[in-house]
Amino acid sequence: AKGLKFVAALGALPVVVIGDAVRLRQVLVHLLNNAIKFTPRGEVELRAQAEEEVPERCRVTFVVRDTGVGIPQDRLAHLFDSFSPLDGEPGKPYGGLGVGLPTVYHLLRLMGGEIKVASQVGQGSTFTIHLGMRVVAGARPAPAPRPASQVARAGGKRILVVEDDAVAQRIVAHMLARGKFQADTVGSGEAALAAASVRRYDLILMDLQMPGMDGIQAAEAIRSLPGYANVPIVALTAHTTEEYRVFSRQHGLDGFLSKPVRSEELLAVVKQHLGPAAQGEGSAELPGS
To answer: Are residues 123 and 67 in contact, defined by beta-carbon separation less than 8 angstroms?
Structure first.
């Protein structure tokens, strides 16, 4: 584990916009993955800010910044060319392609956006995206997260379920609800990092095999957030070998659940990691589980 610090800063943003969510997610995943890959120490930052251009239209700026190895000036002009290496010299660390950068460039062109990069060798890189979007008028903001003390009084610990399969999300959330635990669900490593940045969770159930930022990368990034150094993160995976269990432990995960997970196994592991305060919660089992 690198022990990188992840910073997420959201400025003034519309509640709802109309745009290509799939392509935008691909762009941000590529940039964040590269930032993590090419940053041996320090931090990775994601910022987002919107400015109104005309009524019901806005210009959203996304910034991905890292304190990594940086890019030589003579490479910047060709950075978005296909098969353009970030470091092509044999034996150099972090050699290989800047994964997905030509894809990022072409996806943004398809969406009518643009991307700029600034970098200094040994100091890091900053990628800035500008993208026009349509604002949905009259949309209501999501309810503000409740304070941790309020959640505790409501009778349950707050758990984050990170799972890219929507059906599996609902099943695990239902199991937890039957055990009197409150669960939020997200479908990617990036979404898990964003959720943990704005809310303090008592435990995280982490799918390891996900596109983009996988479970190991997401767990490492979440560990760098304030208050998450000791929060239990339990692996969810279809791999059942002892070798994979060892792999999970070596990468800082605190537990291991094999899919498909049974209700009693899930609740036992959750109560084990949440300690005595959770032991009084009611147990539950899904019919037919």
So the answer is: yes
